[in-house]
Design a protein that fits this description.
The chain has one domain (3-124): Up-down Bundle (Four Helix Bundle (Hemerythrin (Met), subunit A)), CATH 1.20.120. It is built from six helices and no strands. The protein has helices spanning 3-16, 21-27, 32-51, 57-74, 77-91, 96-124. It is elongated. The two termini are 24 Å apart.
Length: 126
Protein backbone atom coordinates (compact mmCIF):
# COMPACT_ATOMS: atom_id res chain seq x y z
CA UNK A 1 0.00 0.00 0.00
CA UNK A 2 1.37 3.40 -0.99
CA UNK A 3 1.80 6.26 1.46
CA UNK A 4 -1.03 8.16 -0.24
CA UNK A 5 -3.35 5.15 0.00
CA UNK A 6 -2.55 4.79 3.73
CA UNK A 7 -3.16 8.54 4.18
CA UNK A 8 -6.55 8.34 2.41
CA UNK A 9 -7.55 5.23 4.33
CA UNK A 10 -6.73 6.98 7.62
CA UNK A 11 -8.91 10.01 6.76
CA UNK A 12 -11.85 7.92 5.59
CA UNK A 13 -11.56 5.85 8.77
CA UNK A 14 -11.60 9.03 10.86
CA UNK A 15 -14.80 10.13 9.17
CA UNK A 16 -16.25 6.61 9.48
CA UNK A 17 -15.96 6.91 13.26
CA UNK A 18 -18.68 9.57 13.04
CA UNK A 19 -20.71 8.71 9.94
CA UNK A 20 -22.49 5.46 9.11
CA UNK A 21 -21.29 4.98 5.54
CA UNK A 22 -23.67 2.05 5.04
CA UNK A 23 -26.59 4.39 5.73
CA UNK A 24 -25.08 7.09 3.51
CA UNK A 25 -24.58 4.62 0.66
CA UNK A 26 -28.22 3.50 0.89
CA UNK A 27 -29.34 7.15 1.05
CA UNK A 28 -27.38 8.01 -2.13
CA UNK A 29 -28.12 4.65 -3.79
CA UNK A 30 -24.37 4.10 -4.03
CA UNK A 31 -23.84 7.11 -6.32
CA UNK A 32 -20.27 8.26 -5.52
CA UNK A 33 -20.67 11.81 -6.87
CA UNK A 34 -23.80 12.36 -4.77
CA UNK A 35 -22.10 10.85 -1.72
CA UNK A 36 -19.12 13.20 -2.12
CA UNK A 37 -21.39 16.21 -2.60
CA UNK A 38 -23.50 15.38 0.46
CA UNK A 39 -20.38 14.92 2.57
CA UNK A 40 -18.95 18.21 1.33
CA UNK A 41 -22.21 20.02 2.00
CA UNK A 42 -22.59 18.44 5.45
CA UNK A 43 -19.04 19.34 6.43
CA UNK A 44 -19.62 22.95 5.37
CA UNK A 45 -22.91 23.10 7.27
CA UNK A 46 -21.30 21.65 10.38
CA UNK A 47 -18.50 24.23 10.28
CA UNK A 48 -21.04 27.03 9.70
CA UNK A 49 -23.06 25.84 12.70
CA UNK A 50 -19.93 25.94 14.86
CA UNK A 51 -19.23 29.54 13.81
CA UNK A 52 -22.80 30.70 14.43
CA UNK A 53 -24.21 31.50 17.80
CA UNK A 54 -27.96 32.08 17.69
CA UNK A 55 -29.09 35.06 19.73
CA UNK A 56 -32.13 33.45 21.31
CA UNK A 57 -33.57 30.08 22.24
CA UNK A 58 -35.94 29.94 19.26
CA UNK A 59 -33.12 30.53 16.79
CA UNK A 60 -30.92 28.01 18.59
CA UNK A 61 -33.66 25.37 18.45
CA UNK A 62 -34.16 26.03 14.72
CA UNK A 63 -30.43 25.69 14.06
CA UNK A 64 -30.26 22.50 16.13
CA UNK A 65 -33.25 21.07 14.28
CA UNK A 66 -31.57 21.70 10.90
CA UNK A 67 -28.29 20.22 12.13
CA UNK A 68 -30.10 17.17 13.51
CA UNK A 69 -31.89 16.58 10.20
CA UNK A 70 -28.82 16.88 8.02
CA UNK A 71 -26.79 14.72 10.41
CA UNK A 72 -29.42 11.98 10.33
CA UNK A 73 -29.69 12.17 6.56
CA UNK A 74 -26.04 11.28 6.04
CA UNK A 75 -25.70 8.92 9.00
CA UNK A 76 -23.90 11.14 11.54
CA UNK A 77 -26.07 9.65 14.27
CA UNK A 78 -23.99 10.61 17.35
CA UNK A 79 -24.12 14.27 16.27
CA UNK A 80 -27.85 14.03 15.49
CA UNK A 81 -28.51 12.53 18.91
CA UNK A 82 -26.54 15.27 20.67
CA UNK A 83 -28.39 17.98 18.72
CA UNK A 84 -31.74 16.36 19.49
CA UNK A 85 -30.94 16.13 23.20
CA UNK A 86 -30.09 19.82 23.42
CA UNK A 87 -33.10 20.76 21.27
CA UNK A 88 -35.43 18.87 23.65
CA UNK A 89 -33.84 20.41 26.73
CA UNK A 90 -34.39 23.88 25.26
CA UNK A 91 -38.03 23.01 24.52
CA UNK A 92 -38.72 22.09 28.15
CA UNK A 93 -36.64 24.99 29.49
CA UNK A 94 -34.26 22.69 31.34
CA UNK A 95 -31.95 23.96 34.04
CA UNK A 96 -28.52 25.43 33.39
CA UNK A 97 -26.61 22.30 34.47
CA UNK A 98 -28.50 20.08 32.03
CA UNK A 99 -28.06 22.63 29.23
CA UNK A 100 -24.35 22.97 29.96
CA UNK A 101 -23.91 19.18 29.83
CA UNK A 102 -25.88 18.88 26.57
CA UNK A 103 -23.95 21.76 24.98
CA UNK A 104 -20.67 20.15 26.02
CA UNK A 105 -21.71 16.85 24.41
CA UNK A 106 -22.77 18.63 21.23
CA UNK A 107 -19.51 20.57 21.13
CA UNK A 108 -17.53 17.36 21.56
CA UNK A 109 -19.36 15.77 18.62
CA UNK A 110 -18.91 18.90 16.51
CA UNK A 111 -15.18 19.14 17.23
CA UNK A 112 -14.62 15.49 16.35
CA UNK A 113 -16.53 15.88 13.09
CA UNK A 114 -14.75 19.14 12.31
CA UNK A 115 -11.37 17.42 12.48
CA UNK A 116 -12.58 14.45 10.44
CA UNK A 117 -14.22 16.73 7.85
CA UNK A 118 -11.12 18.86 7.48
CA UNK A 119 -9.00 15.76 6.92
CA UNK A 120 -11.51 14.35 4.44
CA UNK A 121 -11.78 17.64 2.54
CA UNK A 122 -7.99 17.84 2.31
CA UNK A 123 -7.84 14.28 1.01
CA UNK A 124 -10.71 14.85 -1.44
CA UNK A 125 -9.17 18.06 -2.71
CA UNK A 126 -11.92 20.45 -1.56
Amino acid sequence: MTARARHEKHHVAALADHIDFGHLERYTMGEPVLTQELLRSFCEETLAFMRSRPGDVVAERRALHRLKGSARAIGAFPLADAAEWLEKLLEVEAGPDDLREARAELQEQLEALKEACQAWKEMAGY
